[in-house]
């Protein structure tokens, strides 16, 4: 997590400085157009990002996404070096759209890497470490910006050296992605790299991407994520009011810099608090499992009471987020009401430190609330992404990869099976959603993949399976062919995590677009914005805390765990 946090620190240290002073560096109109292109591109790209990350692997996706951020710095460098001519403004806007596309890859890969964390720090500690480093970039960038621009006047088109430094720092962060340890699915995909030859077929590539797009959109049809979607939306809408409307109205330029630094410092502190709460629940679950093992229990499922302790810790994170958000909203409501009762002709700017304390306090509480909310979101995704739809069958990718050696052997016997078709079948099988018994055997995966000419391959595989039963064939990892690695294999889990994170970022980006579109006071009264943001958070927490999700498979699993615990207690 330290390496991943370091990558994001370098990338966003540069980007936050560009974004924070975009109006001064580019001019108000160009800055607004660049931001609009960025968020529109990000929203559209989030649908396709999980498929691309699955194809490239997490490390390469992080590298490519970070390079897109460097593209904005380089485009800005060219724009500034040329004297900021109007003819080059479309270049900056296009670079903003490129950043949006890269951001979808960057954040989808980040979610997969962070949620696949194993060993070392617990899942909460991993989030706290990453979130702290990520938000430290905003704090450090704000301080450096304050020091740089306090000595050098802001002149649109005259900051070429600054953009050059931004580009170099972002490129260093992009290279840091290769210092990450490969995920299990990345290593497995690289082991069977020849399956990528299927991408040479346009039809196969279209089916591969189309299936992934459909699977990503279908995430929102699952009950746990439908209930979580209001919270996803709130994490985008609320910061738009807090940072774009409230902070600019109630803080003068000097206290505003301090307020933004406080907001992001509170984000880091909130991430640490969320990590401590979540890891405390995880430790309670681990202690209960160890106790069951010492007592001679034969089942390895965690006791329901320990699972409840972990869920209770997650609910505590959500409740603390609501409490902090409510305090910040109460302060904002009081300030907005006072401003509404005062003179409408005067902007309610707090120009002295004493009058700036309430707005600063509100920003601090909001920053902590946002970190706690997003920590819960990632915990919720990790808990449900590889749930009932993946728990009942081995991975289609595993089955297809298991079939590759057999398909190659059949091909070498000159039975009419083309190896490229077998590779294409393996690749397409990876893209198929795994439901029920689908993907349980290599031949099923090949049939469902519907390659161009693999009929002979499927028949030959059936004959091979009769000669060597699945249980007698072992894989390189010591697992019998067709045998799952657990409730969900690594490839299944990471693909599901990628799709869920991509869907989360899609909804969150829609929230940003809605929030920034409504943030101007002349469109929606600021007090109404404050009330609406708080009500959305309240409804989101109520849906998650008061209406626990129980899918059919989830309820059956819960009943089995309760029965196991009762039997163990009886023994």
Query: What level of helicity do the residues show?
Result: over 70%
Q: How are helices and strands ordered from N to C?
A: HHHHHHHHHHHHHHHHHHHHH
Global structural class: mainly alpha
Beta-strand portion reads under 5%
Task: Profile the largest sheet.
Answer: none
User: How many H/I helical runs?
Assistant: 21
List low-pLDDT spans: 191-199, 297-304, 388-488, 549-562
The overall number of domains is 3
- What is the CA-CA span between the terminal residues? 42 Å
Main attributes of the structure:
571 residues; 3 domains; 21 helices; 77% helix; Ion_channel_UNC-93; transmembrane
What does this 3D model show about the protein?
It is found in: Membrane. The structure is a single chain. The protein is mainly alpha-helical. It folds into three domains: 181 residues, MFS general substrate transporter like domains (Growth Hormone, Chain: A); 124 residues, no CATH class; 206 residues, no CATH class. The chain has 21 helices and no strands. About 23% of the residues have low confidence.
Annotate the secondary structure layout:
Blueprint: H1 2-20, H2 22-26, H3 28-56, H4 58-81, H5 89-115, H6 123-151, H7 160-176, H8 184-191, H9 202-217, H10 223-250, H11 253-294, H12 304-341, H13 353-384, H14 388-391, H15 396-412, H16 419-431, H17 442-449, H18 455-467, H19 490-518, H20 526-546, H21 552-570
Transmembrane segments: 36-53, 60-81, 87-107, 128-149, 161-180, 256-278, 316-339, 531-549
Signal peptide: 1-22
Pfam families: UNC-93
Quick description:
The chain has 571 residues and is an all-alpha fold. It is 77% helix and 0% strand.
């Amino acid at each position: 997590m330290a390496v991943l946090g370091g990558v994001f620190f370098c990338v966003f240290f540069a980007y936050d400085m560009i974004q924070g002073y975009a109006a001064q560096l580019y001019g108000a109109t160009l800055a607004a157009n660049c931001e609009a292109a960025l968020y529109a591109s990000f929203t559209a790209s989030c649908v396709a990002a999980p498929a691309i990350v699955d194809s490239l692997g997490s490390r390469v996706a992080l590298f490519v996404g970070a390079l897109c951020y460097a593209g904005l710095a380089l485009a800005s460098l060219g724009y500034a070096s040329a004297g900021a001519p109007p003819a080059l403004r479309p270049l900056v806007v296009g670079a903003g759209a490129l950043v949006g596309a890269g951001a979808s890859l960057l954040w989808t890969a980040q979610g997969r890497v962070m949620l696949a964390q194993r060993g070392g720090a617990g899942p909460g500690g991993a989030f706290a470490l990453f979130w702290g480093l990520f938000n430290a970039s905003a704090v450090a960038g704000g301080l450096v910006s304050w020091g740089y621009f306090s000595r050098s006047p802001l002149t649109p088109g005259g900051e070429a050296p600054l953009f050059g430094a931004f580009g170099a720092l972002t490129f260093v962060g992009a290279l840091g992605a290769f210092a990450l340890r490969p995920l299990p699915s990345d290593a497995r995909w690289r082991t069977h790299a020849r399956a990528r030859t299927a991408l040479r077929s346009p039809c196969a590539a279209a089916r591969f991407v189309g299936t992934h797009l459909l699977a990503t959109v279908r995430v929102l049809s699952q009950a746990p994520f439908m209930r979580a979607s209001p919270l996803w939306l709130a994490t985008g809408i609320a910061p738009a009011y807090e940072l774009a409307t409230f902070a600019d109205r109630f803080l003068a330029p000097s206290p505003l810099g301090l307020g933004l630094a406080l907001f992001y410092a509170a984000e880091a502190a909130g991430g640490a608090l969320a990590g401590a709460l979540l890891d405390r629940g995880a430790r309670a679950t681990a202690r209960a499992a160890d106790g069951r093992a010492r007592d001679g229990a034969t089942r390895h499922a965690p006791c329901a009471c320990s699972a409840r302790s972990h869920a209770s810790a997650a609910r505590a994170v959500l409740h603390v987020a609501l409490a902090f958000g409510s305090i910040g909203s109460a302060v904002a409501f009081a300030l907005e009401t006072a401003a509404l009762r005062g003179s409408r002709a005067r902007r309610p700017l707090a120009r002295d430190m004493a009058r700036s304390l309430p707005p600063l306090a509100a920003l601090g509480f909001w920053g902590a609330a946002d970190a706690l909310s997003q920590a819960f979101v990632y915990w919720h995704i990790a808990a449900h992404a590889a749930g009932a739809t993946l728990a009942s069958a081995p991975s289609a990718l595993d089955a297809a990869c298991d079939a590759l050696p057999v398909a190659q052997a059949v091909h070498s016997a000159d039975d009419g099976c083309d190896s490229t078709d077998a590779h294409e079948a393996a690749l397409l099988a990876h893209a198929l959603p795994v439901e029920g018994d689908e993907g349980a055997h290599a031949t099923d995966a090949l049939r469902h993949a519907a390659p161009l000419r693999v009929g002979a391959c499927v028949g030959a595989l059936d004959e091979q399976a009769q000669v060597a039963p699945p249980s007698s064939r072992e894989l390189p990892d010591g697992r019998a062919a067709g045998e799952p690695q657990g409730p969900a294999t690594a490839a299944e889990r990471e693909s599901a995590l990628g799709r869920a994170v991509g869907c989360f970022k899609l909804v969150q980006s829609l929230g940003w677009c809605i929030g920034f579109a409504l943030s101007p006071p002349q469109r929606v009264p600021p007090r109404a914005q404050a009330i609406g943001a708080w009500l959305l958070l309240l409804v989101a927490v109520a849906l998650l805390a008061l209406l626990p999700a129980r899918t059919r498979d989830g309820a059956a699993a819960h009943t089995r765990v309760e029965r196991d615990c009762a039997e163990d207690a009886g023994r």
